[in-house]
């Protein structure tokens, strides 16, 4: 029962094909497309795939983008598209959002993937789960799997564009991260990086205080590798966290 996992972010669509919807399965194919190129999937990489038996997707984009993906699938296969929507509880995670269905699907799926990864590695611990992309999200989960709440803040690119549009003369190339920047390019890059790092480290402090234990910390997202070297607390960088979560959900739903 082959399984197609789809992750639609703010900028790109990422996909992976697995031989089965089983936690720990390794992809047999995968790729990524910018959202403006979604309509080329059926004529491109997807045209070379054997028809999947199941599909589960996670999207933060508008319904129109999901529909474009469904149209590409319909050109090739007879397989229904299913999209994750956050719920009150699923796969061992309890949703503490004021309005559970309004929680972003990517945040929900990432927490589920991280929770399963943490439990597979040892005893239950609280968690901090971070996604670094166009936007940055920082989630807190307690030892029982309850989502306590999370931050949303602009990603580095949005910060820079905001400064360029609101500040005269700030049109400079991206610089390097320095402890003590001595030029404008480095000052902008360092400021954005340490602003994000500060928000993450503050959430780690909150979780320590709330839960009385050191949290397991996971980081994912397209720009996660840029942030990881500048963190003062240890994080495990997991590029596949959304796909891991989709596998957990698909397996849990099949079993239920």
Poorly predicted spans: none
Global morphology: globular
Distance between the termini: 17 Å
Please state the structural category.
Answer: alpha/beta
The first-level CATH class of the largest domain is given as Alpha Beta
- What fold name stands as the CATH topology of the largest domain? Nucleotidyltransferase, domain 5
Largest sheet: 5 strands, mixed
Q: How much of the residues is beta strand, in percent?
A: 15-25%
Number of helices: 6
Please state the average pLDDT score: 94
Strand and helix map with partners:
Elements (H helix, E strand, L loop, with lengths): L2 E6 L3 E7 L10 E6 L19 E6 L3 H14 L5 E2 L5 E2 L2 E2 L10 H17 L5 E6 L2 E7 L5 E8 L1 H11 L17 H28 L4 E5 L3 H4 L8 E2 L3 H15 L1
Parallel strand pairs: 1-4, 4-5, 8-11, 11-12
Antiparallel strand pairs: 1-2, 2-3, 6-7, 8-9, 9-10
Describe the structure using short key phrases.
single chain; 256 residues; alpha/beta; Nucleotidyltransferase, domain 5; 2 domains; five-stranded mixed beta sheet; 6 helices; 12 strands; 35% helix; globular; nucleotide-binding; EC 2.7.1.33; ATP-binding; potassium; transferase
Descriptive notes:
- It is an enzyme of class 2 (transferase).
- Pathway: Cofactor biosynthesis; coenzyme A biosynthesis; CoA from (R)-pantothenate: step 1/5.
- Catalyzes the phosphorylation of pantothenate (Pan), the first step in CoA biosynthesis.
- This is Type III pantothenate kinase.
- By secondary structure, this protein is an alpha/beta fold.
- It has two domains: 3-83, Nucleotidyltransferase, domain 5, CATH 3.30.420.40; 89-246, ATPase, nucleotide binding domain (Nucleotidyltransferase, domain 5, 2-Layer Sandwich), CATH 3.30.420.40.
- It is built from six helices and twelve strands.
- Strands 3-2-1-4-5 form a five-stranded mixed sheet, with helices on one face. Strands 10-9-8-11-12 form a five-stranded mixed sheet, with helices on both faces.
- Helix 2 packs across helix 6.
- The longest helix has 28 residues, at 184-211.
- It is globular.
- It starts with a strand and ends with a helix.
- The model has no long low-confidence stretch (mean pLDDT 94).
């Amino acid at each position: 029962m082959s399984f197609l996992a789809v992750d639609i972010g703010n900028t790109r669509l990422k996909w992976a094909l697995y031989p089965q919807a089983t936690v720990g399965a390794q992809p047999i194919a995968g790729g990524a497309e910018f959202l403006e190129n979604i309509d080329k999937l059926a004529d491109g990489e997807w045209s070379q795939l054997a028809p999947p038996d199941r599909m589960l997707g996670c999207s933060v984009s508008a319904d129109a983008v999901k529909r474009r993906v469904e149209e590409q699938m319909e050109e090739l296969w007879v397989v229904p598209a299913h999209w994750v929507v956050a719920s009150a509880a699923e796969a061992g995670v309890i949703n503490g959002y004021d309005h559970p269905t309004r929680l972003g699907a990517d945040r929900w799926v990432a927490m589920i993937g991280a929770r399963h990864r943490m439990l597979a590695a040892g005893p239950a611990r609280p968690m901090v789960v971070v996604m670094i992309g166009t936007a940055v999200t920082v989630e807190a989960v307690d030892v029982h799997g309850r989502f306590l709440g999370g931050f949303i803040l602009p990603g580095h690119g949005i910060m820079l564009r905001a400064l360029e549009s609101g500040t005269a003369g700030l049109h400079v190339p991206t610089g390097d991260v320095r402890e003590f920047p001595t030029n404008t390019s480095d000052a902008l890059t360092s400021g954005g990086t340490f602003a994000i790092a500060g928000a993450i480290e503050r959430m780690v402090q909150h979780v320590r205080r709330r839960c009385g234990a050191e949290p397991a910390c996971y980081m994912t997202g397209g720009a996660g590798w840029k942030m990881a070297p500048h963190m003062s607390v240890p994080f495990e960088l997991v590029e596949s966290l959304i796909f891991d979560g989709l596998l957990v959900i698909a397996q849990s739903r099949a079993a239920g």
